[in-house]
Amino acid sequence: MNDLVIIVQILVVIFLCVNMLLIVTFFSKEVFYTTMRYILFAVTLLSDSLMLFVSDILLILSSYRVTMQFGLCIIFYILSVICIFVTPVTLTAMALERYVAICMPLRHAQLCSTRSTMHCILIIHSLSSVPCIVILSVFCASASKSLYTQYKICSMEIFVSLRWQNNIKTAIYQLYFLIMSITIILSYVKIMKVAKAASGENKKSTRKGLRTVILHAFQVFLCLVQLWCPFIEVALFQIDLMLYVNVRYFNYITFILAPRCLSPLIYGLRDEKFLLALKHKVPFGFHCVKIKARTGFVCQVGCRDRLP
């Protein structure tokens, strides 16, 4: 148990450092914090970093059986659930931004302005708060008043202790998964139609847009896989306790920690402007060689002095 906790702490520190580097890079150029897709990318970075931090605290406390007042546990729960949904909802919005850029280029500047981006972020957080509000409302309706002053080991499962509460949670999660999946698929289909009709530079741009939407779909999939992990863990809990503990750590590392760091890093390295800014922030250089093949840009890490 202690070895697993130590491994998780090392990974969390590494992933948080990577995310912080990407966030610092975002604020280094004006073009990043005045462009919609970069701003939304920064929203996912901040949300993922907060999610890593909060989930790691809960993991440590639960591993060592540390209790806390139930009211404080509710605050942790609110932060966790909102962060869980902010990233996939934001990625869906980024897919829509690519759809507007490619299929409605004349209206892109108007629909994706900085002002519109702020409104979009407000909508994203509002939508991400709905599952939390519903689940907590259902829980509070059936919980006793004395519960809020008790000390308990904080975990996400205590808020869905009854079967019907779990059914409501499952229905909400599946509804969000369905809506986001349909949105991304429709965006991909629309962009594909434009790609077939395009030619020259426009065709190259639309194909790049298609790859970006596919990446967003993969990122959303990784984020939403963790929503199904509790159902697997509950089934294993009935079979074997140690198997349940080991699988839970595996799910945490594979479907919560890794996607919250690796997918933003991949997205950042794919973008030419962001990559050029990023190589000024790291202690080693990136040798970016443009390949005429479909792979686009291949980055090889080399030991060279940092550029001024």
Description:
The chain is mainly α and 308 residues long. It has one domain (3-281): Rhopdopsin 7-helix transmembrane proteins, CATH 1.20.1070.10. Helices cover 76% and strands 5% of the residues. The protein has nine helices and four strands, in the order H-H-E-H-H-H-E-H-H-H-H-E-E. A two-stranded antiparallel sheet has the order 1-2. Strands 3-4 form a two-stranded antiparallel sheet. A hairpin with a 6-residue loop joins strand 3 (285-290) and strand 4 (297-302). It is globular, with a radius of gyration of 21 Å. It comes from Larimichthys crocea.
Spans of at least 5 consecutive residues whose pLDDT stays below 50 are: 285-308
Task: Please give the radius of gyration in angstroms.
Answer: 21 Å
Architecture in CATH? Up-down Bundle
Strand order of the largest sheet: 1-2
What is the general shape? Answer: globular
CATH homologous group name: Rhodopsin 7-helix transmembrane proteins
Q: What is the number of helices?
A: 9
SS-based class: mainly alpha
Mean pLDDT: 80
Major sheet characteristics: 2 strands, antiparallel
Tell me the fraction of residues in β-strands, as a range. Answer: 5-15%
Number of domains: 1
The CATH class label is: Mainly Alpha
Return the string of H and E elements: HHEHHHEHHHHEE
Can you give the helix content as a percent range? over 70%
Kindly, what is the distance between the CA atoms of the first and last residues, rounded to a whole number of angstroms? 46 Å
Q: Number of DSSP strands? A: 4
Keywords: Membrane, Receptor, Transmembrane, Transmembrane helix
GO cellular component, one term: membrane
Domain G-protein coupled receptors family 1 profile: 18-267
InterPro entries: GPCR1_Superfamily_Member (IPR052921), GPCR_Rhodpsn (IPR000276), GPCR_Rhodpsn_7TM (IPR017452)
